[in-house]
Fold this protein.
Amino acid sequence: MSSLESDASAPAGEHRVAADWPFYLIFAVIGGCYVVLILALLIGDIAYMVRGDVTGPAWAGDMPAWLRWFVDNPIFAALSKPEIQYSITLSLVSCTVTAIMSIWVAVPVGYLMARWDDAMVAQQLDRIAQPVEHHSKRLAAIIRWCSPKALIDAILDIPIVLPPLVIGLSLLILFQFFPRGVREEVVYEVPAVVLAQFVVACAFAVRVMRATYEQIDARREQVALTLGCSRAQAFFRVVMPESMRGILTAGTLAWARALGEFGPLLIFAGATRNKTEVLSTTVFLELSIGDLEAAVAVSLIMVLAAVVVLVIARVWGSNNLTI
Amino acid sequence: MIRVENLTIRAGEFRLRDVSFEAPTGSYAVLMGKTGSGKTTLLEGICGLKRIESGSVFLGDRDVTYAKPAERGIGFVPQDGALFRTMTVYDNIAFALTVRGWSDGEIRERVDELAELLGVTHLLDRHITGLSGGEQQRISLGRALAARPSILCLDEPLSALDDDTREEMYTLLRSVREHSHVTTLHITHNIAETQNLADRLFIIANGGLTERPIKRPDSTPSIETV
C-alpha cells in the first residue's frame, strides 16, 4: 500500500517511455519479409518462363519479338498439348462438382453445429467434473470436453489435420470393403478424383459455414418462428438469404482447396494421363519427366485460377470469417 | 389474456422458478426487473422460444405450454428490432402474411394500413440498412402486428432510443393499443415507460415475480424497490 502511495505522489512526467519506432520497425520487417517471400515465389515462376529462347512458330516469323513471345511461351505450348487440355477440363469439372457437393454438406452441418445448444449436456458434465477437479484438473478438463458437440467438432476437423497421404490411403482401404463392381467404378477412376477432393475441401467449407451461421443472430430466426414459420421456413426465408456471402466464400474456398489437392489423389485416383490427371498431377508428371518449363507453365495456370478465386471471395464473399 | 402458472424455466446456469401471473385481455402489462433477473427468459418461455421445465402458459383460453412459437398467435418485438436485413421494409412487415399465404392484394392492403398507423409509409421500398433506431422499432412493431396477433410481446423495445423518439413511441404504442386491442406484455427496466404505458405492473427479482401498484409521476417514484 505504502509503495502505491509513494508512486502516486511522484511528480507527473518523470516516467519516461522508450520510443515506439523500434517496435513497429521490427514487426514491419518480419511481416514484410514474409510478404516479399510470397511475391518472390510468383515472380520467380514468371521470370523463369519469360527467360526462355523465343523463336516462335514459322507463321509468326515476321512478328516483333515481344508479340512473338505471346504465341510461343511455355504456357501456350502447354495449353496446346491434348493431355494438358484434358487435365485442365477435368480439374475445372471436378473442382466445381466438389465445391457444389461441399456446399450441400457444409450448409446443414455448419448450421447444426452453430445452433446446437449444448448447455444441458455441458451442465451435466460439469457436475461430474467438479468433484474430480479436486484430484486432477486434467481429468476434469477431459470430462468437460466429452460433450457430443465438442466430439463431433473434433471429428469434423480430422480431414484438416490428417496428413493428405493418409487420407488417400484411408480412402483406398475403405473401398476394399465395397463390392468389386463399385470399387472398379470408383478407385483409379474419375469419381475417385472428386471423392478425394471432396473429403478435404468439404472440411474447410464446413468451417466457413459454421462461422457464418454463428455470426447470424438467432434472434431473427426466432422472430420468424413467432411470425408463423416452421423451422424449415425460417431457415430458407431468413437464414439462408443472410448466409449467401458465406456460401460463396465456402464454395470458392472448397474449389481452391480441390484444385490444389494432390496427395490423396495420387494414392486413391492415381496419375494416369488422359484419365485421372488434374492440374496438380500434371505438374508432378511433367516434373518427373524433367520438363521443368511445362511444370512451371501449368503451375502458373493454377496460380491464375487461384487469383481469380481469391478475387471472387474477396469481392463478393464474406471477408471476416475465421477459417 | 396471458396466464402463466407455476412456470419454471432454466436458461443455462440461471433458473426462473415457480412464476405465476395474469394479464387480462386488452391490458398493457409491464414487466420490470434488473438485467439478469430473467425478464427475457420469461418472455421467451411465453413465446415458445425456451423449453419450459414445468408449469403452464395460457394465451386466451388455450394452453400453449408445449405449442410451437408459430401456433401461439404472438407478435414478438425483440430489443434491437431484429429486422430481416435481406428484405425491404415492405417485405418485413408482410412477412407473417406471406408465410400464411395471403393474396398480394390482401397483403398490400394490410401493410399499407399498418404503415400508415406507424408512420413508415415513405420507407416501404427502402432496405433495412440506414434506418434509424426509431424507424426500425416501428417496422418491427408493424411486422409483429401484421397477422393480427392477440398477444404482443415487447422486449425492451425503447431501450436503444433517444428521449424524443421515446416520447413518439409512447404515443404510437398507445394508439396501437387503441386500434388493435391487443394484450401487451412489455419488458423494461425503465420506470418512465411503466408510468407512461402500463396498466398492470409486475416486478421480477430473485427468480420470483410479484404484482405492484403503478406509481404515477405525481406520487413518489420508487426505482429502488425494483
